[in-house]
Amino acid sequence: MDTLLWYAIAELLLSIHISFSNLLVLWVYIRSKHVRTVTNTYIFSLALTDFLAGALGIPLTVVSVMTRKPRTFYGCLFVHLILCILCTISTFHMLAIAIDKYVTICCRDRIFSSRRKRAIFLLTCSWILGLLVAILPLFNVFGFAETQSLFVKNGEMCYFTMVVDYRYLVYVIFFSTILAPTAIIVLLYSSIYSRIRTEEKQVKCLLRQSERERRMAGRRKLIRILLILVVSYGICWYPLYIINTIDYFWPQFSINSLTLWTVIMSHMSCALNPLIYAYGMPGFKKALRAFFNIQTDANTCANYSCYMRSTGNQKQRSISVRGMPYEHSLAAIRKISAPTPVMIDRHRSRRRQTVDHIDL
User: What parts of the sequence cross the membrane (predicted)?
Assistant: First the structure.
């Protein structure tokens, strides 16, 4: 089968997956008020960007690659830049999330008094910077006149490399929106991890064994998520732009046969984002279970009793605890387990002295 046909099939399947998975994240955020936290606001905006890439950018690009249309320079440039810019905005979102976490944990909100205002500012910057990157190919410094003449010489056939200059792909997209954000993200998350380790050592003597184990488990989960984030991002994006860099600086070593498959790998980043960011959050997990009508054991069975009713013979089964009716025994249990004022003050004091970084 022709390589272009395989490319089109793979891209369309990926487009369906990206659109559905990110649409699910958008639906959960809109319908469930309890997940509308500041952290999830970043995830919502990121999911919106990835959804547009899957529902609009990828299909338009596939149609253009298969038909070599539109036959106008600006139309061809617009079609190919849509997906490029949406993926760039997605990268800026991941950088914004890293900056927010760094400021929250390492700077203790000294930069912005309100975390929600900071989120609005960072997300606005992500979209504006992405749109500014979109207009750079229109300047001659990035070969605008050359690409126009090359497009006409090529019989007005729409090819990505005919309307977008390699200087733009290498210096702007790769160096400025791939390499630089990656370095900043790694630096910020390294600082976050170092800060968490320092604080854990300082408050270790103030915590019970069970609390220490819980926090250690949360820290291991954090490390795992951060490693998955950085590694998956590099695997998805670096092959394509390494090939573009080789094509620009060393055209004699060009490996164009791999370009289409590295393009598919770069688009997989939009499919992995909801898996890494959204579906890993407890609030999103619960809302997704509700969406698929999946009931957990906590919803079907209480900790101390189960109440069963048979509609066929109208028989009832009840549970008693040490000879006491269920209602009275449950009230007694609640009374015994109710926290005293001393316990509440002690808990508040411990919460002030320790900071939990699990929800990242």
Answer: 6-30, 42-66, 72-99, 120-145, 168-189, 222-240, 260-279
